[in-house]
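pinging the channel bc i need a second pair of eyes. not urgent but kinda urgent?? the chain im working w is below, pasted from the shared doc
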Amino acid sequence: MSGRLEGKAVLITGAASGLGAETARLFARQGARVAIADVLGEPGNALAAEIGGEAFHIHCDVTSEDSFQAAIDAAADRFGGLDVLFANAGGAGTLAPIAQMDEAGWDAVMALIPRAAMFGMKHALPHLRTAGGGSIMVTASIAGLRPGVASTAYSVAKAAVLQLVQMAAAEFSLDRVRVNAISPGIVPTPGITGFFGVGRDKVDAMLPQVSEIFGDAQLLPRAGTPLDIANMALFLASDEAGWITGQNFVVDGGMMAMGPASLDPSRADGVLQRTMALAGQFRD
């Protein structure tokens, strides 16, 4: 089926790479007009040129309410309205355990993940209300559902996103604005290197091996891809999901169904241990 988002105006944060970029491409193929919101200007502009049509990049620092509001308003002005917000921007942040956590590291992750999602919802709502309704999706994570998947701050931040989605779904319901979360499993993208302390300049060399390792981490014997997540976002953005709100959609290849053994940190042959050993070869 083509044209599932025909004419819809969409803003995607964290859209210059990884999950966001693949979603921008898919949405555009399905007829959407896409605003690529990201702090990364050069790759954002390059993606807009690749997509063509009405796609454009707009600078957006989601940790700044003013910057986020300006990006949303600019997209709505350019497109004549807004139908969909995909609050996808995020990052690993501090990897410190609780015993070593500092204020700055904790606050940075909370600003980037739940606080940013909340301000995105706040400033998208007036435009979606004017449009007669719409869809907001937020990238959560299976890390918000189970310990042992990611760092403490990141896991807590993603758990907060899940509660935020339910609260927003309730508050926005009379405006016919649907709010849902997508919780990916471990999908090898450039951003995943931050979870293992590896710089982005090493990502091209590391990702193929990470994908191979994480093929063993879930019931379906392959690593997830950005397109797997983009396909779920497409459904939730479309009118096909018109009676769905306040939900969390887990897209993890069955990782959550395997139980904790799939990511058991005590297993010498576990996927986390194998990935950390690989990352050690790429760290500066």
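so The mean pLDDT is 89. and The helical segments are 18-29, 41-51, 65-79, 103-130, 152-172, 203-214, 226-237, 271-280. — does that match what u expected or am i reading it wrong
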